[in-house]
């Protein structure tokens, strides 16, 4: 039996959870579905533990779910594996790069897994090699939504698990009870809220409290919950719920990735941010609102529109306008009351669209499988220009 390939994944935890969320998901899938020996190097094990409770942040090296999790500094003592994957352009330690170059292109394949984008230029950059000192090339691998990209992370069993979970009448109630959350009122709109900080929340919350239809916000940890606490003039404790008129507010704890999927499946609307939760909301086949990571030069708004152009292609013009109006208002910090009401009124149509969109995406191979195949096709002889 041939020896398993060793894959080294490197992840900087910047100021959010999407980066380590992607790294942890990819690492486990490579190990469990592709039989790779995976070493995941992380620079912030304490933050990582928020989505992986079994992790011990005091250990420099440990096995979790079939993956070797290592502290960032461990790269200084180790030789590179057969494949080295930098997540989102993180910078490796200079001695480790030197050892990659010393082993040479015939023995190490070096990949930069880039940020997710729907922009058209991504297809032209996907799988392009970049020459590095020492005669080795770094392959740029772009996730995406079209056949000309590297696809999206999706475990082989994910959609079947989603469908089985949603077919169980008691699944939603059990999942909420496990988190200490009360059952939502009848006819309530349940909203999973996981976003970045934004202005003009108070008017939106006041409108929800005064609305005729009940709304339940399941609020993930982060700046949005801080703003909601300020509006409430109290601090919501983990698992605690409070009611203001027609609005019920529930504070969620950090949960493992598998449990987060269940929350997405349980919600009527998923407000998600960054990359990992954004992709999982699409696989949940639920109506969604993407709070894209804000950039100082507003470059994120072009990326937002690029996704909307794909997501809404072929959708009735009135529905596309409703979606675009809320997404733009949310991401630009504009007033939400009117566009939110229009969006909620369209939830049945949006649900059908979300199901069709997930089916369309599922026709493409998943990211991990595409990455493994791309490197296998290139072989060990380097990355030709």
Task: Describe the SSE topology.
Elements: E1 6-11, H1 18-34, E2 37-42, H2 45-48, E3 61-64, E4 67-71, E5 83-87, H3 94-103, E6 109-113, H4 121-125, E7 128-132, E8 136-141, H5 158-167, H6 171-178, E9 189-193, H7 201-210, E10 215-219, H8 223-232, E11 241-244, E12 247-251, H9 257-266, E13 269-273, H10 276-283, E14 288-291, H11 299-311, H12 317-332, H13 337-345, H14 347-362, H15 367-378
Parallel strand pairs: 1-2, 1-5, 2-4, 5-6, 6-8, 9-10, 9-13, 10-12, 13-14
Antiparallel strand pairs: 3-4, 7-8, 11-12
Helix pairs in contact: 11-12, 12-13
Features:
385 residues, Rossmann fold, six-stranded mixed sheet, 41% helix
- Which stretches are low in confidence, meaning pLDDT under 50 for 5 or more residues running? 381-385
User: Which secondary-structure class do the elements indicate?
Assistant: alpha/beta
Could you tell me the strand content as a percent range? Answer: 15-25%
Work out the number of β strands: 14
Oligomeric form? single chain
Could you provide a short overview of the structure?
With 385 residues, the protein is α/β, with parallel strands linked by helices. It has helices at residues 18-34, 45-48, 94-103, 121-125, 158-167, 171-178, 201-210, 223-232, 257-266, 276-283, 299-311, 317-332, 337-345, 347-362, 367-378; strands at residues 6-11, 37-42, 61-64, 67-71, 83-87, 109-113, 128-132, 136-141, 189-193, 215-219, 241-244, 247-251, 269-273, 288-291.
């Amino acid at each position: 039996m041939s020896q398993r390939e060793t894959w080294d994944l490197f992840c900087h935890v910047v100021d959010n959870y999407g980066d380590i969320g992607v790294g942890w998901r990819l690492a486990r899938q490579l190990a469990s579905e592709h039989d790779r020996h995976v070493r995941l190097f992380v620079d912030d094990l304490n933050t990582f533990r928020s989505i992986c409770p079994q992790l011990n942040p005091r250990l420099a090296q440990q096995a979790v779910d079939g993956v070797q999790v290592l502290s960032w500094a461990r790269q200084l003592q180790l030789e590179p594996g057969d494949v080295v994957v930098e997540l989102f352009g993180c910078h490796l330690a200079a001695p480790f790069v030197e050892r990659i170059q010393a082993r040479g292109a015939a023995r190490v394949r070096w990949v930069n897994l880039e940020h997710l984008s729907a922009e058209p230029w991504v297809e032209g950059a996907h799988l392009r090699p970049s020459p590095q000192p020492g005669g080795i090339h770094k392959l740029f691998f772009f996730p995406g939504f079209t056949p000309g990209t590297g696809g999206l992370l999706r475990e082989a069993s994910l959609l079947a698990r989603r469908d089985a979970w949603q077919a169980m009448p008691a699944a939603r109630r059990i999942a909420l009870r496990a988190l200490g959350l009360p059952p939502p009122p009848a006819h309530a709109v349940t909203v999973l809220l996981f976003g970045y900080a934004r202005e003009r929340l108070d008017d939106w919350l006041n409108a929800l409290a005064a609305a005729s239809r009940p709304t339940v916000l399941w609020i993930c940890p982060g700046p949005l919950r801080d703003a909601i606490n300020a509006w409430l003039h109290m601090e919501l404790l983990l698992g605690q719920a409070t009611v203001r008129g027609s609005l019920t507010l529930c504070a969620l704890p950090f949960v493992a990735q598998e449990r987060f999927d269940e929350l997405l499946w349980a919600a009527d609307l998923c407000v998600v941010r960054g990359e990992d939760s954004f992709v999982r909301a699409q696989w949940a086949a639920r109506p969604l609102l993407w709070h894209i990571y804000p950039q100082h030069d507003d470059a994120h708004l072009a990326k937002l529109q690029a996704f909307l152009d794909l997501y809404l292609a072929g959708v009735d013009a009135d529905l596309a306008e409703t979606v675009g109006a809320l997404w733009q208002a949310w991401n630009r910090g504009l007033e939400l009351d009117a566009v939110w009401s229009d969006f909620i009124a369209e939830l049945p149509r949006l649900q059908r669209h979300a199901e069709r969109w997930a089916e369309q995406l599922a026709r493409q191979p998943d990211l991990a499988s595409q990455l493994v195949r791309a490197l296998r096709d290139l072989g060990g002889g380097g990355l030709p220009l």
